[in-house]
User: What shape does this take?
Amino acid sequence: MKGFSQTLPVTGRVVSALDKQPMIGVTVAVKGTTNGAMTKNDGSFSISIPAGKAILTVSYTGFKSKEVSVTGGQTNIEIALDEDTQNLNDVVVVGYSSKRQSELTSAVTVVSADKLKDVTANDVGTMLQGKVAGLQVVNSSGAPGAVAEIRLRGVSSVNASQSPLFVVDGIIGGYYDPNDVESITVLKDAGATALYGSQANAGVIIVTTKSAKQGETRFEAKVSTGFRTADFGKMNLMNSNELYDYQKEFYRDYIVGATDNSYKIDLVKFYAERPLSLRDQDYDWAKESFQRAPLYNFYLSASGKTEKNDYYVGASYYKEKGTFMNTNFERVNLRGNSTYHFSKNLDVSNNINLSASQGNSYDYMDVYYSFLNMPWDNPYDANGNATYVDGNSTFKWWSRDKINPINTVQNSNHPYKGFNVNYDLSVNYRITPWLTFASSNRVAASFDKGTNFVSPVAAGTYHGTGYISELNTLNYGLVSNQLLKFDFTLGDHRLNGFAGAAFETSQREYSGASGKGLPEGLKVLNVVSNNQLVNGANNRYLLQSLLSQVNYSYKDKYFLSGSFRYDGSSNFAPSKQYGGFPSVSAGWLISNEDFLVDNNILSYLKLRGSYGVTGTQDIGASRYLGLYSLTTQYNSLVGAVPYQLASPNLTWESKRQINAGVDIGLFKRVNLTVDVYRNDTKDLLLQVSQPLSVGFETKWDNAGTVINKGIELGINTTNVKTTNFEWNTDFTVNFNNNKLSGFPSDIIKTGSWSISQIYRNGGNLFEFYMPKWLGVDAQTGAPVWEKIVYNTEGIAVASERTLDYAQATNQEVGSALPKYQGGFNNSFRYKSFNLRVSTYFNYGNKVFSNNLRFMMNDGHEPYYNQIKLPSDAKIWSGPGDTEATEPSPQNSANSTETSTRYLKDGSYFAIRNIALSYTLPLAWVSKISMKGITVGITADNVATFSNFLGQDPQTTITPGSFVTPGVSDFKYPNNRQYLLNVNFNF
Assistant: This one.
């Protein structure tokens, strides 16, 4: 009779190969069995194995797994783990689970902390610029606290949000400190994003924050300080001498008797009589309005790990003064997380993040006139009194609506403040060796208050009355995920996944009021004599979901994954509230095949493919309802009038995505990733035109498709690697083509300044729609536009030149979307010195330089300063002038109207970041009980190379009621930033 199988203990210790420090929480398992253990506080472990020999598998996140052959009864074995620098087995957070990078079957990019550490920024978007293929990052404002706009693989909707979904530490949404970011994972295709269903139409960005490391308590401190300066691009303004000569030349031959020329005749006399007084006054409004602005960032963290508890605490203080007068932003952040191991089967994690911020914003018109005011417009008179540049100045200037920003900024205030709190509670209970229950929950709340105040003594629009407005916003909500996760192996087969439910609810409450008629010295609403507006709202949102995923792999060569999410959203009518979002993906790791496993040239080769569907329900809470608005226009009595037609059949936008990719490694030095994709967003949420008999111009409906097709390329190379010197290069590029189809009719959107874009079948999103500028008539100096001649069937048959703007034809003239964009980044190491240079490029988009219609206006508006004309520009000088590019001021009617005259190429190449650092020798710093000190300097937004004439080719890519994507219009300029950084580890 056979007896029971005998087992013998094996004991040992796991340490880091780098510093021989004990490693806590390392998994030690007997290969081929479910028997396992975890290392204790001192790195020790004890495990039973069958009598004889066995193989132990030792693994820990961020380190290379190791297999060790042991014999029963062995003691005091020391196992050293090496850090995994190959990244092929790094654990990547995707969806609601984690995978080894070699198991990925979708388009996923991971940006590690090492590639983020050199950028001190207020937001993740700026940190990611140029580092992820397919990710467009635009810094459309340099105002303190401003964040970058992000688009992934183009724009796929007309009215729904196109910002990617942010997931922080595994839970949707939530606030975080950029100093606490450990890594960022970008999910690009539906194979990875479909698990987030109706919230993932624009992609998903997963932020993983820092957590406890191995060993005893460790401290990290970072101090950054420096300054910023405004980057005006090619806004080279004239001084008083240049402007005087320019204007006098404009009006020297003005014909008396011409239509509407009386004030210009006066100007001729004005310039003739005051040459000295005008030339001698040279006030640089931009220089006086913008300043060198200091920036400070302080960060301190502590982390540690014991046998029972992992903990991390971080605190930071960030402060920046704006380059524009009286603007600033500061933020205090406190974060703590801990994981308590109640047993080998039960872990409970807590994570809390507190943030308080405040600052002072600005009035757009103040920035506007800091550029436009003329150099002989002084903000103060000889007695030091503020001058009213809007017509009350000493010279009775022919101003229309100009203001004195120097004075208005001193007599106005735009403060704002905010408070955010997130609390996460997560529970992981290991029911069996292969089955785990995971619960993750977050409660979040935020409060924001913004005020705009203008004193009645301000020399501007509200002189004598003053103005004040306030807006208070409260947001709070809950996110909860309850999942059953399974993971088991049978021979060469591995099956894992999860199934569960998710719940999300949020509430937004806001109230606002404004008024005029303020007594001097008071800044409260209850003393105004004219209440202009009081409003408020209370919106609730609810999303309920069922979700599941199954992953299968065979011999670590063949991978198959499928997922399904079923969402129910309160944003739609009851009959349309639910939608399903499936995905499937597969991969083949060819380099693990026997015929390639020892290939020294092709070190890695993998094929991937995926298909899936995501959705959009981000349309607001009441688009499907028929709405009335309240008014008091009827003898001050409250009445209700129809506001919005009902759309009970309004349903989800659905985005069908297909992706094929290949990952290639060559010589263990070159890594190449190529992805080809097509994304079709159907049933767009549009405001569709209605018959006149309906009584409404538009109604919300589902119609039309946006198609994005493209290719992405990412290359990482180790060019040189020796003991003392290393050089690595990262290159990313994305080519994207955007097309529209299925639209019931053309949709023309006209924003401020009559700048239009058209949505037309076969065209692109954000396609500019305006007449073509054909230059200057050689005989008269008049502006010329293109007129299209159509036949009776509406087909264009010819084009003509016209001097009549009313006869010029609006036409599609280019999109605000780029044809391709990407990054080129290099890092160098020489001994303890590190240098990193990051660049970004953008090509093929159009930008309407609205600044130029004011600052290159052919004398139409002589009350604005002018830009220095480029060297290739020439003003018409007389009949027969065929080289003129700018019209005659005497014959330039309508020359500043919207046309391609001001539509410029928005392509640019920018040096975004240069960082140089030096790590002090350990022998030095250990004498003061330090484990590491690194000193560095960084420069951000170093230089932009572009043919764009105007302030900045980076413009907003987010449409709004009064905002047109791709329009450059006197924005708060971006900044150049120079910092000294010191990092301490102890």
Remarks:
- The chain has a mean pLDDT of 88.
- Residues 284 and 375 are 6 Å apart (CA to CA).
- The first strand starts at residue 7 and ends at 16.
- The longest helix spans residues 240-251.
